[in-house]
Amino acid sequence: MIKNLGIVTVALLLSAQFVSAAVYQVDPAHSQVQFTVDHLVFFKVSGTFDDYQAEIEADPATKTLNSATATIKVDSINTRETKRDNHLRSADFFDVANHPELTFVSKKVEGAGDAITVYGDLTIRGTTKEVALKGSFRGQNTDPWGNQRAGFAASTVINRHDFGLNWNKALETGGFVVGDNVTITLEIEAVQAK
Q: Which of 157, 140, 155 is closest to 186 using CA atoms?
């Protein structure tokens, strides 16, 4: 009897953990998917992807994440310079004609609150590599329309050559036009699914 009671208690605790987790859909109107890369050695160029969908499963009570997935339309790249954006869409970089989407699928999550690491597969230009996004669960609040909204932030650094983004030109004074490392920064507001 006591043994069975222990099993039931463990099962209830585990089920309670899963019940408290909720699914959130990212709200692109209140979120940013941004990247920054060195340009001409001394400067930085930043840009955003403006068309994307993402889903996060998280527990607001413990400020933990269970999973995260995202699909980004590469054509929505925006560096505020049309000529540069078109070059980034071309086969020199993202090759949008053949690889229209970037994807991320989490595999493992560690930590809670302000110290969360999400490990997952990032696919760019048909190449998949594991990356680690370090970030935080900023909290949850109710908006004026009764929706539960949660805030998340994360960032990572990737080497663009790992994903086949190899175009570059050498500068006469040394160095290259485009840096190797790209910083990706996410500022996410998401709405709990009903």
A: 155
